[in-house]
Amino acid sequence: MDGRRKTGTLGEAAARRYLEEKGWLIRETNWRTRLGELDIIADQKGSIVIVEVRTTRGTRFGYGFQSVDGKKQQKVRRLALQYVKSHRLENRPLRIDVISVLLAPSGEVERLDHLEGAF
């Protein structure tokens, strides 16, 4: 596994643990279509929440959440709508969150930021 993939996997695992500790039900992780991938799909108080996870090993280029640009937001929105339609969940409230994970050199979580309703 290359460095970037390992970093992403560690961050997604940390985000999942964080959400589960808050009592969220994780429906799916790494849901893929030909258009792309959604990191985490969860149920929270009756809402479907799509969680985009961004993991970094330093802040030289900012925190992970700062890398979610307009193009990425559009892609996640499209994928979220595709997920909701394919699972017949159109009647449920939908929200998109971002979790930003900063890893220490050891691989431990140094900081985790959860931006609810990020876009």
From TrEMBL:
Record-linked CDD domains: PoNe_Nuclease
UniProt-listed InterPro entries: Restrct_endonuc-II-like (IPR011335), tRNA_endonuc-like_dom_sf (IPR011856), UPF0102_YraN-like (IPR003509)
Pfam families on file: UPF0102
Gene3D superfamilies: 3.40.1350.10
Matching PANTHER family: UPF0102 PROTEIN YRAN
NCBIfam families: PRK12497.1-3 (NF009150), PRK12497.3-3 (NF009154), YraN family protein (TIGR00252)
Family assignment from sequence similarity: Belongs to the UPF0102 family.
Descriptive protein name: UPF0102 protein ACFOUO_06255
Organism whose genome encodes this protein: Salinithrix halophila
Lineage of source species: Bacteria, Bacillati, Bacillota, Bacilli, Bacillales
